[in-house]
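[audit] Reproducing an earlier prediction to check determinism. Same input, same settings, fresh worker. If the tokens differ from the archived copy the diff job will pick it up downstream; this log only records the rerun itself.
[audit] input (674 residues):
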Amino acid sequence: MIVSGSPAPLGSTCQADGVNFAIWAGAAERVELCLFDEWNIETVRLEMPDCTDGVWHGFLPGCVPGQRYGYRVHGAYVPDKGLRFNAHKLLVDPYARLLAGEFRWDPAVFDYSDRGGELILGSADSAACVPKSVVTDVRVPRTLRPGVPWAETVFYEANVRGYTMRHPAVSDAERGRFAGMSNGQVLGYLKALGVSTVELLPVYEFIDEHALVRRGLRNFWGYNPISFFAPANRYANADARLEFLAMVDAIHDAGLEVVLDVVYNHTGETDGRGPTVSFRGIDNLAYYRTLADDPAVYINDTGCGNTLNTDHPQVRALILDSLRYWSRDMGVDGFRFDLAPVLGRSAHGFSAGHPLLEAMAADALLRDVKLIAEPWDIGPGGYQLGRFPKGWAEWNDRYRDAVRGFWRGDSGVATEFARRIHGSSDLFEQSCRGPAMSVNFVSAHDGFTLADVVSYSHKHNEANGEDNRDGHAHNLSSNYGSEGATADATVLATRRRQRLNMLATMLLSQGTPMLLGGDEFGNSQGGNNNAYAQDNEIGWVDWSGLEQDRAFQESVAELIRLRKSHPALGRNDYLHGQDEIAWWHPDGRHMEEADWACASAFGVILARDQSPHVVSAGSVLIVMNSADVSASVVLPDGGLEWVRLLATADETAGYAGGPSLLLPPRSMMVLESR
């Protein structure tokens, strides 16, 4: 017999003599709790006995962890008015910490039948086709967090499945799973490389889009969630929650942080003709943004069919509770927010003062975690780079484009390039944020890998089944003489040097660098710049490149060590005065405004510890030449000796002391005054 219980907390909560169930469904007429056995057969259906402020709740004596359940929510079904209640559809608890079973595409998962274009109530029972929520004990002891300061952070972006599927040290049982990311050799490699923070693509439960399933593909990246609490079962052998916790413990034990890429902008229920799995059937108008004059139509600021309604207090509470759970109970050190402007969207557009963003800033549990925005979506005014509030870092795509354009040899980009390597003060300083809040990257999961940036002039996404129409065309890439794979030694040497130039630039720039997993040894996706559906050898990291050119990976590790060891690199504040930073012309003078228009070679001098003069002991000079001819550079004369720390050109070329140097084509060099 179920009794009244408590409206808080939401979800299923274990107590000494049973389990409390609570679900918010503010416009529902009644709610049923359905219990399932281990074979996913419905055994009991219980009406929730009480409702408090829109929360339906009940306490079930004798219920224990492991119990599978779901909800059926009763109410009006009037699609034209945005009302989508349908008790024939079993619904996932939005607060479930674990799910059992897989989503299966079947006509029963749709809450409607199509009668000549009109949606009418669909009466097929969906219970056999949707995952079941599972009662869990929440609290698990955690290991100590590394607590890496922003100024020492180096992100490393990876997909749990793609990163481990082909790793030579990962067993068959670990491949593609949280256990693979827990592997000692995987973590030892990351530690030796020098990165500080592993940023994982989405790991909570998601489903494969119907269009992909019809093409024989599946969602590889994970940006199609149906739960904001439950780790994805496809990444586990048995209990996804416990295996995720074990992974976090292992990563922390290695001295590394864990940041999750999270998706609070849309769900896998897609548009009005998508499946009903959870939110749509609980309260469609509360969870999703719809047109004010036509609530049957979803606002699609995400390009994924729907947009979460962060103006609604219950949606804000769900997001905050999810973030607290992943941080407090699952040990996560930070979050990268996909299409983050949605978090600050209202009917009037994006605002940095949106109640959700303000609540996140005020939350005691979230103050010490890293918050990173992908600062764009496709809605009106969707590009918000530099406009997030204090405390937020942001992915800086202008950095990516400037670095790619400069090293490709594009004209007229030197000024933009200089702003980006300086730390993008024009974007972040006005909101009292330092250079570390600019997350600098030259490649990421979305787009070409770095090896493909220098191997393909055009995208090659044919394997996605969309006739190569998908994916971005603005790649700022070059094949340097031959599209794709080649045996031409000259082309290969140019590509290698350009990869090192871009990584060296990123790792020595002011700001926080993010390395795409596999770029440090030349991983390629065969020119596919939108591998979201390539859960195969196109999307999986090919580790053979590490052994083919280990010297390249060692150069990347050396760059990270140089960044961490030198005080002039990775600063917390912006360098503005001529006593702190200077832009150097190859002729042996400071750059003037007229020099920037056609600049292809120049340098930047960084003072050590805010020295009273730029050129003093310990100053760093970084000189760059993106032209295809050598550049003669007269070095600053401060009465000190310049010592080469690093060069991207062949080791036999470069500088052995003296007042000037010859900088080879398409190369850079780092020197220190002593």
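[audit] rerun output stored. Observation attached for the diff report: The longest strand covers residues 18-24.
[audit] end
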